[in-house]
Design a protein that fits this description.
With 196 residues, the protein is mainly beta. The chain has one domain (38-195). 8% of the residues lie in helices and 39% in strands. It has one helix at 2-17, and strands at 39-44, 50-54, 63-67, 76-79, 86-91, 96-101, 108-112, 117-121, 131-142, 148-150, 153-155, 162-172, 186-187, 193-195. Strands 1, 3, 4, 6, 8, 9, 10, 12 and 13 form a nine-stranded antiparallel sheet that branches. A three-stranded antiparallel sheet has the order 11-7-14, with no helix packed on it. It has a two-stranded antiparallel ribbon with strand order 2-5. The radius of gyration is 35 Å and the shape is elongated.
């Protein structure tokens, strides 16, 4: 009798400890959206204003007009020999302006300078003097560091945005052109690149 009570007790104890594990499974996906692209927009072109210009047609002397990216800084002119090459400002110009958006907050963008390129007369006889645009400068208007000069990078703000200006140096023709400058418009196309 004692043995049957022990067996019954063991069976009851086993029954209490034995249970089936119920598990369910499901699948899910992991995803991410990559947005390396952002928006770089030109708001206005670089305008050196209206000038009087004289090219050296004999010995390669040059004159320069430096237009700062900082809108509070006045343009300056210089010449290696003012009797042979000269620039005089009649109407002041304005720097180019750009805006950036869609960038990750506080990211830093690298600047690739525009390549030095000729600014040629839009309509003139062959051999007419032209200009060269070089030495671009940058000034951040809004962004992580507003109202500051930039050299190789621009940092955007918490919204991933910035606005900035581009200035540069306009130099008279050093190739001893056949003809001096004539009245009219002169232009050239340049490419500015920003990247992460």
């Amino acid at each position: 009798m004692k043995n049957s009570i022990k067996i019954a007790a063991l069976m009851t104890s086993s029954a209490l400890l034995t249970f089936n594990v119920v598990a369910e499974q499901t699948t899910f996906q992991a995803g991410v959206t990559v947005q390396n692209a952002f928006t770089l927009q030109k708001d206005s072109d670089l305008d050196f204003g209206t000038i009087r210009a004289k090219a050296d047609t004999t010995s390669g002397e040059t004159a320069t007009l430096v237009l700062s990216a900082n809108p509070a800084t006045s343009a300056t002119t210089a010449s290696t020999n003012a009797a042979l090459a000269e620039i005089a400002i009649l109407v002041p110009g304005t720097p180019a302006s750009f805006s950036v958006s869609g960038v990750s907050p506080f990211a830093t963008l690298n600047i690739t300078n525009p390549t030095e390129t000729a600014i040629a007369p839009d309509s003139a006889p062959a051999g007419t003097a032209g200009f060269v645009l070089a030495s671009p400068t940058y000034y951040v208007l809004t962004g992580a560091n507003p109202n500051s000069a930039a050299t190789t990078t621009i940092q955007v703000d918490a919204n991933g945005e910035a606005t900035f200006n581009v200035g540069g140096t306009l130099t008279t023709d050093a190739t001893t052109p056949a003809l001096d400058y004539i009245d009219g418009t002169y232009s050239g196309t340049f490419t500015l690149q920003l990247d992460y």
